[in-house]
């Protein structure tokens, strides 16, 4: 027997006899409490040893529950008492504090110097100029809309990324949308469709169409053009985004746990309440590159010329290049492409999909930018980057790598009060943000929280423009990948992207063959099917560059 099993039998026999004798020979409340304790211990321990399905309970009766109790608060204990300011993931204390401070409009400076290891491998930094400049107001917006767009949109450099009603509570959605109105940015609906809470405060909306086609599907789950047209032509809907995949779970449909599906959400999405709402992994309207582009054209016509784009997490490079080929063949181009990084967030996803699939945001944005340049399409298409943006430097890094604007989701939630408890998939969010529990969500004051969204957006953008100016630039459009510096394992600095062959205009379509992986990927790309075998063997870029220079 284990020690705790022996302790149990001692308490169950000798302990109970002593407690009974003590109570018979003494008066008062305490003797009764002692007997109640020993009897309670005996009953619970008996169940654990003889009936429990858990090995720990059988071997360590009663006290095993202490482990379960402490384990249930492990995240909070680690966050409050153990982790330092720079080691938590996905957002450390330094990043979260910065968001909270900017959202509350309080001091966001630090004292005594950096806590970061500036010689850490892959540490990113910038070189400043001795002649800082000021960014003019005319350079603080980005126009989204290609040659076929009739209603281009002037977007902020920083916007609210896709978060669905269902994943988030009604009050959280209202706060974000009212915050977007006050901040002058757009609010992406997420794949759950446009809800009354997105529309209530008249903030600019980007309507995301997921693979479930929520908000524009018929009773059989097929695309309904009439329903789409009725919503898409509303003045508040500024752009439409087709979701192909998400960085946190590429290759897997969106997941809304059944615990969070209310009658209202079931009605909005046209889904049952008795099981998890799992969207198809493949958008039924976008099964091939040409089918996707034809869907883009169809949505543009139905929406009366509004900007149409799609969102994806980049995987096999050949498949994205197949899209580029299809754009050239059909003459149909999206107005924007949202590139989601593998480090992006989600309300619920399988661990393996979150941890092991997809390109990270910076490398994916750099690839997409170069692919569009090489195909001669970059001037027609804007790139929106999405994936873990907390500070103005995060914003700058993505734009330097090729993005035109940036979306943020989790940090916008933090501006509402999210504490990174990681209970988004349980309906037990302690801040009332990622839950459908009315008792929790009603704690969110929409007016107050929308001010925090506005403050975070404003203060982050102000810092971003100041950071760009510190480099001697008068416009974010002048940022280039080589301006980002990365610390190598040898302790030296290198320009980000310098070891990867950048493409020039029409390099992929010209008769002059380019060397390296681009040529292989382009030759493998096809327009009638997304899938292509991943057969190119990647090798360290520094070796190929060394051989080329030698």
TrEMBL record:
Q: Which Pfam families match?
A: Glu_synthase
Report the record's Gene Ontology biological process terms: glutamate biosynthetic process
Membrane in keyword set: yes
Q: What would you give as a GO molecular function for this chain, any one?
A: glutamate synthase activity
- What sections of the protein cross the membrane? 7-24, 30-50
Q: Which UniProt keywords apply?
A: Membrane, Transmembrane, Transmembrane helix
User: What domain of life?
Assistant: Bacteria
Residues in domain Glutamate synthase?
A: 155-473
> Membrane among the record's keywords?
yes
Q: What protein family does this chain belong to?
A: Belongs to the glutamate synthase family.
What protein am I looking at? Ferredoxin-dependent glutamate synthase
Q: Which organism is it from?
A: Shewanella pealeana (strain ATCC 700345 / ANG-SQ1)
């Amino acid at each position: 027997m284990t020690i705790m099993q022996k302790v149990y039998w001692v308490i169950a026999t000798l302990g109970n006899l002593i407690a009974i004798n003590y109570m018979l020979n003494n008066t008062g409340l305490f003797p009764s409490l002692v007997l109640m304790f020993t009897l309670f211990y005996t009953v619970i321990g008996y169940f654990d040893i003889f009936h429990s399905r858990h090995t720990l309970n059988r071997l360590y009766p009663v006290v095993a529950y202490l482990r379960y109790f402490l384990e249930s608060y492990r995240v909070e204990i680690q966050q409050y008492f153990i982790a330092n300011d720079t080691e938590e993931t996905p957002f450390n204390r330094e990043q979260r504090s910065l968001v909270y401070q900017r959202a509350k409009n309080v001091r966001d400076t630090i004292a005594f110097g950096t806590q970061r290891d500036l010689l850490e491998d892959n540490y990113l930094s910038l070189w400043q100029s001795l002649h800082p400049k000021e960014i003019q107001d005319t350079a603080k917006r980005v126009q989204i809309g290609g040659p076929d767009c009739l209603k281009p949109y002037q977007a902020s450099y920083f916007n609210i990324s896709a978060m669905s009603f269902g994943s988030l509570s009604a009050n959280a959605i209202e706060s974000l949308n009212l915050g977007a109105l006050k901040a002058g940015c757009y609010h992406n609906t997420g794949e759950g469709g446009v809800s009354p809470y997105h529309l209530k405060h008249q903030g600019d909306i980007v309507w995301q169409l997921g693979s479930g086609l929520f908000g524009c599907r018929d009773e059989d789950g097929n695309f309904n053009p009439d329903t789409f047209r009725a919503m898409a032509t509303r003045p508040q809907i500024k752009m439409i985004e087709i979701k192909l995949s998400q960085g946190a779970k590429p290759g897997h449909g969106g997941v809304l746990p059944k615990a969070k599906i209310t009658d209202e959400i079931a009605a909005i999405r046209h889904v049952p309440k008795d099981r998890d709402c799992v969207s198809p992994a493949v958008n039924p309207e976008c099964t091939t590159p040409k089918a996707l582009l034809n869907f883009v054209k169809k949505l543009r016509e139905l929406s009366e010329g509004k900007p149409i784009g799609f969102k994806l997490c980049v995987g096999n490079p050949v498949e994205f290049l197949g899209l580029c080929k299809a754009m050239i063949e059909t003459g149909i181009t999206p107005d924007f492409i949202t590139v989601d990084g593998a480090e992006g967030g989600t309300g619920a996803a399988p661990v393996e999909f979150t941890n092991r699939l997809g390109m990270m945001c910076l490398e994916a944005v750099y690839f997409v930018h170069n692919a569009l340049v090489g195909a001669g399409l970059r001037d027609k298409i804007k790139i929106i980057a999405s994936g873990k943006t907390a500070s103005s430097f995060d914003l700058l890094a993505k734009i330097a790598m090729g993005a035109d604007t940036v979306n943020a989701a989790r940090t916008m939630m933090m501006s509402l009060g999210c504490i990174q408890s990681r209970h988004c998939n349980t309906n037990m969010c302690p801040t009332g943000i990622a839950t459908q529990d009315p008792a929790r969500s009603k704690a969110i004051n929409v007016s107050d929280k929308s001010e925090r969204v506005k403050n975070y957006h404003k203060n982050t953008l102000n810092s971003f423009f100041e950071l760009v100016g510190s480099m001697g630039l008068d416009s974010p459009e002048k940022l280039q990948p080589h301006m980002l510096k990365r610390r190598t394992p040898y302790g030296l600095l290198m320009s980000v992207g310098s070891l990867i062959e950048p493409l020039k205009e029409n390099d992929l379509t010209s008769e002059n063959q380019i060397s390296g992986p681009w040529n292989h990927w382009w030759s493998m790309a096809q327009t009638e099917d997304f899938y292509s075998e991943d057969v190119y063997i990647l090798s360290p870029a520094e070796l190929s560059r060394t051989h080329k220079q030698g």
